[in-house]
């Protein structure tokens, strides 16, 4: 009975010890919970204040979110979690990052403000007249910046500075833009001095050809007076440019028509030497056109001359084509057959003789002098077949101007493609008729691999040689 009493007393002693420690632990957890809540409230207040003072809300938002989703936000004061973690690490980290966000906002605001100070100084050095007279002195701005204590205060200063510089900067930019536009305007002439030389040269050429020079002379004199007086030449330059461009275009049109007349004269000479049907009247018509060209002074008159040149060129070419066709028909009736060539239509080109011969069912129809590839770009030998036809045909070199294979863009009336890689039989209106034949491949008329055929013959060949026509190129 005594032993049982002792045991009961012992159990009660143990229970008493446990019951006395529980209130102490609960008090510690509650204290830590209260400490967390207090520091969290201080952080929220600081964040609100910092945002009002100019710290970007985006910089604070991640910190607010981290605190909101923290375990400590939802843990009751009675939870034993507070005994193992008092939230100090989290709160200290948020404190440090809050300070960093403040420092970053201050640094960004200061950097922007310093850039404005530098911009104003640069503007004043470049164009002092463009700086607004009522703007604060540049030396005051660094002092104001030094006195500012928050990002918001610095940003407010920068906004004011920006406003005070806005008009001045716009004025300076407008002046610079006008200067750049003016420089670009006269750059093609090499500057104002070059423009004067160009205008004087255009006037000299126009007077030599008795062309209408318009008011270019008086405008040029006005510009020269402004230059001599060191005055602003902008208005004088702008006034001269348009009329000068018109005069230069007129000179270009005049030169083009002169070249067309030269080509037409060559065609008429061929017609006369061939004794074509209407050759006797071509020279008289040419004389009338040349006389009209000689007295043409403006674009309208030159355009009328060009139309007359085109019309006469068409008549001469038609006469030449008819003469060639008649000659071929006469030759066909007198030519023997049985030549050693394939049956059907065949073109045989001799590179050594620079001659092309045309056969049909072994009968020789005609021959013509030609021009083939120049040294280094010889026309390839072999047996080929026509597989492409173009009328007209436009040729553009695949090589750059520095290459020996380069040629300027050209247009021909007839072209027969007989070999891949761009090998054609085609007319060459730029080649003098007397240049075709033996040795022409080694002269300036040598081709870049194609076979040049006189225009009149090529017109017949284009109508005669269909797809599949055999082309044999021999040595």
TrEMBL record:
Pathway given in the UniProt record: Cell wall biogenesis; peptidoglycan biosynthesis
Keywords for this protein: Cell shape, Cell wall biogenesis/degradation, Peptidoglycan synthesis, Signal, Transferase
One Pfam entry name: YkuD
SUPFAM superfamilies per UniProt: L,D-transpeptidase catalytic domain-like
Domain L,D-TPase catalytic: 345-474
Gene Ontology cellular component list: extracellular region
GO molecular-function terms, A-Z: peptidoglycan L,D-transpeptidase activity; transferase activity
Active site: 426, 450
Signal peptide coordinates: 1-24
GO biological process, one term: cell wall organization
PANTHER family: L,D-TRANSPEPTIDASE, L,D-TRANSPEPTIDASE YCIB-RELATED
Name of this chain's protein: L,D-TPase catalytic domain-containing protein
Protein species of origin: Candidatus Aeolococcus gillhamiae
């Amino acid at each position: 009975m005594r032993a049982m009493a002792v045991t009961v007393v012992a159990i009660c002693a143990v229970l008493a010890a446990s019951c006395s420690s529980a209130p102490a632990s609960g008090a510690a957890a509650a204290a830590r919970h209260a400490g967390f809540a207090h520091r969290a409230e201080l952080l929220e207040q600081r964040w609100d204040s910092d945002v009002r003072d100019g710290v970007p809300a985006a910089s604070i938002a991640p910190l607010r979110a981290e605190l909101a989703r923290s375990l400590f936000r939802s843990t009751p004061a009675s939870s034993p979690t507070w005994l193992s973690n008092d939230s100090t690490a989290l709160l200290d980290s948020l404190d440090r990052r809050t300070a960093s966000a403040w420092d970053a906002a201050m640094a960004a605001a200061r950097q922007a403000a310093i850039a404005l100070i530098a911009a104003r100084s640069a503007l004043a050095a470049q164009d002092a007249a463009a700086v607004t007279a009522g703007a604060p002195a540049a030396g005051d701005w660094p002092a104001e910046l030094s006195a500012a204590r928050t990002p918001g205060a610095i940003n407010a200063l920068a906004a004011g500075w920006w406003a005070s510089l806005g008009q001045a900067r716009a004025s300076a930019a407008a002046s610079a833009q006008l200067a750049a536009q003016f420089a670009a305007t006269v750059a093609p002439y090499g500057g104002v001095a070059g423009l004067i030389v160009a205008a004087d040269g255009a006037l000299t050429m126009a007077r030599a050809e008795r062309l209408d020079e318009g008011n270019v002379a008086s405008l040029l004199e006005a510009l020269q007076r402004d230059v001599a007086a060191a005055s602003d030449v902008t208005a004088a330059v702008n006034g001269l440019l348009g009329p000068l461009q018109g005069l230069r275009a007129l000179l270009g049109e005049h030169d083009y028509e002169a070249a067309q007349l030269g080509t037409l004269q060559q065609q008429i000479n061929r017609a006369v030497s061939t004794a074509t049907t209407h050759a006797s009247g071509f020279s008289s018509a040419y004389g009338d056109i040349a006389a009209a060209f000689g007295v043409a002074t403006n674009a309208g008159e030159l355009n009328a001359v060009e139309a007359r040149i085109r019309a006469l060129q068409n008549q001469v070419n038609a006469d030449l084509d008819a003469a060639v066709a008649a000659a071929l028909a006469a030759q066909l009736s007198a030519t023997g057959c049985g030549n050693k060539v394939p049956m059907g239509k065949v073109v045989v080109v001799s590179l050594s003789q620079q001659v092309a011969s045309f056969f049909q069912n072994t009968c020789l129809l005609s021959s013509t002098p030609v021009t083939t590839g120049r040294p280094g770009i010889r026309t390839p030998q072999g047996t080929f077949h026509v597989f492409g036809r173009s009328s007209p045909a436009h040729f553009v070199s695949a090589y750059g101007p520095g290459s020996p294979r380069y040629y300027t863009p050209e247009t021909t009336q007839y072209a027969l493609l007989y070999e891949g890689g761009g090998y054609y039989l085609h007319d060459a209106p730029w080649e003098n008729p007397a240049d075709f034949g033996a040795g022409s491949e080694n002269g300036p008329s040598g081709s870049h691999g194609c076979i040049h055929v006189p225009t009149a013959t090529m017109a017949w060949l284009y109508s005669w040689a269909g797809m599949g026509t055999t082309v044999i190129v021999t040595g």
